[in-house]
Amino acid sequence: MITGGLGGIPGRRVAAMQATVRSFDVADGSGSVFLDDGTVRRFGPEVFAASGLRLLRRGQRVAIRCGPTGAITALALATLPLPGQAAGLDAGAGPGAGAAQPGEGSQPET
To answer: For a Cys staple, 33 with which of 3, 19, 64, 77, CB 3.0–4.6 Å?
Structure first.
């Protein structure tokens, strides 16, 4: 969960949203996304530059964070944490999570 002012309510806890890339301008790094309800939101080149990504493709799923005005303030691939977001409760919940490391939890050979 992210504490923010989404919807103009300071301190309201909201989850990061996911969206689908609608358009992306490679020349300047700006673009737009569709929210799951069909709303279109635009993002500027500064948001894309802060993401660390090199390219977005139409139809790609992304995670976004919006500011109090609804403007997109952070963007990342849906499978990656948003810029500036520390690993949350589900850190390590991907494939191989919880798998024993070599020498851990293995039974000794007899």
So the answer is: 19
What are 52-108's pLDDT values in tens digits? Answer: 999 999 999 999 999 999 999 999 999 888 887 665 544 444 444 444 445 555 455
Measured between alpha carbons, how far is 84 from 108 in angstroms, rounded to an integer?
43
Q: Is the full-model pTM beyond 0.85?
A: no
Q: What DSSP letter does each residue of 44-101 carry, written as one string?
A: -HHHHHHHT-S---TT-EEEEEE-TTS-EEEEEETTSPPTTPPP-TTTT-STTTTPPP
In the chain, what are the domain boundaries? 2-77
Tell me if the domain spanning 2-77 has CATH number 2.40.50.140: yes
Rounded Cα distance, 33 and 75, in Å: 10
